Amino acid sequence: MFLKAKRSRAVAAGVAALAMLATACGGSSTSAGGDGTLVVYTGQSGDWQLNFNPFSPTALEGPGTIFEPLFFYNNIRDVEPRPRLGKTFTWNSDGTQLDVELRDDAKWTDGQKFTADDVVFTLDMVTKNAAMNGTGYKGTATAVDPTHVSIKFPEPSFMEGPQILGRIWMVPKHKWSGLATPATDVVKEPVGTGPFQLDDFKAQAFTLKANPNYYAGEPALKKVRYLALSGNQSGEAALRAGQIDWQTGPVPDIKNVEKNYPGYKAITIPMNQVALFTCSNAALGCAGPQTDVAVRKAVYYAVNRTQINQLAFENTAGEISPGAALLERDRDQVSTKLKEKTAPMQPDEAKATSLLEGAGYTKGADGIYQKDGKPLALTLKVVAGWTDYITAVETMSQQLQKVGIKITPQQLSWNEWSDARGRGQYELLIDALHQGPAPDPFYNASYFYSTATTAKVGEIANPNFARVSDPAIDAALAALKGIDPKDDAKRQPHFDTIQTRIEELVPYIPILTGGTTSEFNAKKFTGWPTKEDLYAFPAVWARPEHSEIFLKLKPAS
Amino acid sequence: MRYYARKLAFYLVAFWAAVTLNFFIPRLMPGNPVDILMAKLAQRGGTVDPAARRAYELLLGSGSDESLLSQYFAYLGTMFRGDLGVSVSSFPTPVSEIIADALPWTLVLVGIATFLSFALGVVLGTLVGWRRGTWLDSLVPATTVLAAVPYFWLALILVALLASGLGWFPLLGGYDVVLSPGWDLEFLGSAVYHGTLPALTIVLSSVGGWLLGMRNMMVSTTSEDYVLTAKAKGLRDSRIMIRYAARNAVLPSVAGFAISLGFVVAGSIITEQVFSYPGIGSKLLQAVQNNDYALMQGIFLVITVAVLGANLVVDLLYAVIDPRTRVSG
Q1: Which among A271, A225, A248 has a CA at the least distance from the CA of A519?
Q2: Where is the Solute-binding protein family domain (chain A) (predicted)?
Q3: Residues from chain A contacting residue B45 (CB–CB below 8 Å)
């Protein structure tokens, strides 16, 4: 009896203690509180491991916020680069010399002045450490005077500009010259010129604070906190609880974000061209019916893009150009010589069947086309867990069945899928093409359609996975490297060549332009990008774009 | 003595086999860390220049053409020096550092939860076994249902109810992020508060197993002659239950408990995922998702050592606890 009494008292005490804790933390200080701190979630799963080296592929933060590029390139709107540490830049006529004028009022956060020596030191460091050279920089830089740098190149390098000016982060010579291994140093106490500096670091969250001595004035946004959660699922839950102010990624019921998350808004930017990648080139070792261009075109005409958009992408995806340029951003470069301005949103089954019959296919008893006794059957690889793509693939296989093409969807782990994609050991797979560092269709074409970036089947292509190898495209890309990007009239014929060849070859069968959706707290902060004013690509993980947005945000109190 | 030597030899061989599998299995998987890094950057930074690939191969040293066998011997060598290599997914942090950061969280959370569910299961099992045939019997199906419910589902239900719905507990994390980890009261309180819900999930879903085992052993020991003798002597019921029946019935559970302590190190991946808990389970998942061989090997090594060690201790202790094994050994 006595024992029992004691035990129940202990339990009561425990419950009371818990209740006290619960009330003490009831306000949960992790919530996006009222102190003007912007809480962001970049999709990080698991704890942060300290790394503020902007050149490291695993850097937590730094590009644009702590360390600045010379210029900011907006890669979704065709506008002039915005000066950051640079003021102006000029190329010589053949694209072998780039002269940059620098600001003279920028300071490192330890009080030292930023000069041309820092720029030359940074560029030389990237040259010396191949492991840091993610931009493929091949120039030689010299400081003319404290505010002028001149970079010489061995070959015409107009198209290298955005990478060098917009994606090499300037670091202080006086701090970094002492580092033994700059490529693998984690830069525990980053010293930069940027609008923000590191405030404090913990494994579950780190915080940046505004730099009071920033040359353009102290940002209105005083603090940014980066949370580490366990993935998109928990990101969605935290968003629902109002614990994060900005995240990029789909949420259920995208149409009604403003209703489901009071105070929040969503923006969707079409950027990634969703396509059926085909191993298209028999000369490089591809095998299967998709090596026949007639089959690729038949698929192109037989899919019902409107239905796919509705079922798989909640109608967030947009139209797509068969010439692989982005319709909105590249509207001045989209070729007028293309047969179709956009890929048809409605299926054209008659055209698909006539293409197949013209290529010698006949309809079998089971309704599937065949040639030389072999049915027209293709496997389509998709990553297990990519639910929107899986839905798209299932929808397409039903649509193509109607025309007489048998598609077998195959779900694989990301590793298997990426291995098959790299080595060209696939017939069809679904993925998206990405863009380059500047608003210019050249980059996408040079990545995915040039002989230089492909490989024989069995070797890893980087990243021309469709094995496109076309002399006309290669020649046009080479010519573009030697033309000043401002000279639109001279460039257009080459764009025409590239786009019309892509339309003829259909190595990546265009489906739709997929949107990147972000949700952000519009009640707490003003100044977010809108469709009308897209001053930067609004994805929280896009660096340095996010720093441009941080600079514009203002607490709404 | 021969018994002990034989046991030790067996454990050494088991350890070598585990370490070897640990090396080869990840390398038989398709894909490589550079591809994953490139894909992540393409998703995170929008654009990746093809030139980046070469840079990262150099950085991670994965473009090397060393034979698998020489890699294997190098791996054994560094492992015995205690050097577990560098993690690719959190480059350039050493693996030992990542494990050292994550392990305490898991040990405390899963350790305490395992101990609680063991204690609770044994106590309840004793009662249910002693009073079999009463309403208490319904505890058995009730707890085994909880154990049979898919684990992540139970966790998500609890989150939906207690964290999202009622707001009694925090949604995720191991502590309130505005605090600095340290030995002060505020931080410890926050850690306990954040750990309650994950611990509750573990206890709820594993208490059934202990309860069932204990109850069944109780039922068989209460029918033994010595219990009858004790009753005939007129001893108090509670004394018979605890000193005569439960003491003998608990032996197999103790062995099971020691082994499950070994598995504490492995954490529980699902709990840590659902609650974004900063433990070893979430690190293991991260390693697997990123083809991070060094981190995978490091974590598996720790798990292997813990499980083998726990088994060894049980083997050696059992002879002490249960005199009957000594006779045959």
Answers
A1: A248
A2: 80-452
A3: 63, 541-543
